[in-house]
Amino acid sequence: MTSPRRSRLVAAVCLAAAAALAAGCSKEEGSGTASSDTSQGAQVVQSPSADSSGSGCTLEAYGATKIDLKNAVVGFSQSEKEANPFRIAETQSIKDEAAKLGVKKLLTTNAQSQLSKQISDIKDMLAQGAQLLIVAPLNSDGLEPALQAAAAKHVPVITVDRKLNATACKDYVAFLGSDFVEQGKRAADAMIQVTGGKGKVAILLGSSGNNVTTDRTKGFVDQLKAKAPGLEIVAQQTGEFARDKGQQVMEQLIQSKPDITAVYAENDEMGLGAVTALKGAGKKPGKDVKIVSIDGTRNAVQALADGQYNGVIESNPRFGPLAFETAQKFFAGESIPENVIISDRAYDASNAKDSLSGAY
Predict the structure, then answer these.
(1) How buried is 244 (Cβ within 10 angstroms: 0-12 exposed, 13-18 middle, 19+ buried)?
(2) What is the average pLDDT across 209-231?
(3) pTM of the entire predicted model
């Protein structure tokens, strides 16, 4: 027979365990701590005072018709082939959220890095009855024919991860994504930290024709000029956001600029390509040559944990929840800011190992 005292002890233990479990489940999303895996690295919008610019867009101002997303046909246009972890995570996030919300039909296309195909993809989805378009633009310019086709049918367009050089609340509703200039600045700060503010830096540029490359370059270059003139930029060459191209460019730079001591890669894939090139040349990445990049892929954060990398600034691709939440607010009549800016975490040697669960 169990004594009353033992019964009370068992009950107390059970209550404590339940409280601990509840605390773990209610962990704030986007905290960046080791236990942030409960949020699966969910996007977090910056505070209202910092998350928007422009006057905002409403359903009435845009000229669209109110719809219920559960009974709607939604189109998602991906820009690049899904060999890049960012694109894989981005597309999956859109699919997962559409399924979660019970969207009647989700159309997905992939432009395979061809602008003409992205235009035809979008037009094709419109022909299939798309009532909302979520677009990851390949370039900041050139999508005008697709935007015009959407406008002719009064179909709202929400852009993610790259901005369009177009008119908000006319050509598209809003841009959802990161502050890319700020990412560049934070990458520069990380580089200054790991190099002591001195050395020769090579920049592996992203693909041309989009604001991500332009802004990440500007943020990094301007920050070095302002805070670390002892870090000299000795090369800037495009790696086209691809690992194989990043490796190829780095191999060439090792030959032409053998005194390079640091690499800023404008995405993780190029940075990982640089790691391979440096190893092939008998150099120790992370030690002989410091490496800082942007994205937050699991492979890059693992390389950081392993000491072969020196810093990673996150660019979160999980746009599904934010894209559909924004669409729901728009169709409910709320005003949507021109730019909805998300917060990005930073990984370094002190948190990389414990933060792997939040990487993608």
Answers:
(1) middle
(2) 97
(3) 0.86
